[in-house]
Design goal:
alpha+beta; VC0802-like; six-stranded antiparallel sheet; 5 helices; 6 strands
Length: 134
């Protein structure tokens, strides 16, 4: 893909992580909540067991859907979808610090969802990782 970064070290060095102010929740979509959830979702995934949506935690609360809240750290580098190593570097760095990480790749950016209470710590660790790759 033209204009995309594909070399591992360059992806890591250029990731410029950014912490989203919104908290997010992974929820299961049911027929009665589908219009609200799918309209607000920043991501969905269909599995054999049903559809998962990533929605603002406030909306999930309004609909009575409980679950853990996640902070989203967006990696601002335009990484190649076929690039190798960025996800592994991010997940490994966070795992070494005991931070759970759910990675979501989209066309323009990769996103790391971490427990809400660990958002700032994850951001700091990923900034350090980027600096170490330059």
């Amino acid at each position: 893909m033209a204009g995309r970064v594909s070399e591992t070290r360059a992806m890591i060095a250029g990731m410029s992580p950014r912490l989203d102010e919104t908290l997010w929740r992974f929820v299961l979509v049911s027929p009665d909540t589908a219009p609200q959830l799918l309209g607000a979702a920043i991501g969905t995934f269909r599995e054999d067991e049903g559809v998962t949506a990533i929605v603002p935690s406030g909306l999930a609360d309004e609909l009575g859907i409980e679950g853990p809240d996640f902070a989203r750290v967006t990696l601002m580098v335009h990484s190649d979808l076929e690039g190798v190593g960025l996800t592994a570097a991010v997940a490994s760095t966070l795992a070494e610090a005991g931070i759970a990480c759910n990675m979501v790749a989209a066309f323009h950016h990769d996103h790391a969802f971490v427990p809400a209470a660990k958002g700032e710590e994850a951001l700091s660790l990923l900034r350090d990782l980027a600096r170490s790759a330059t």
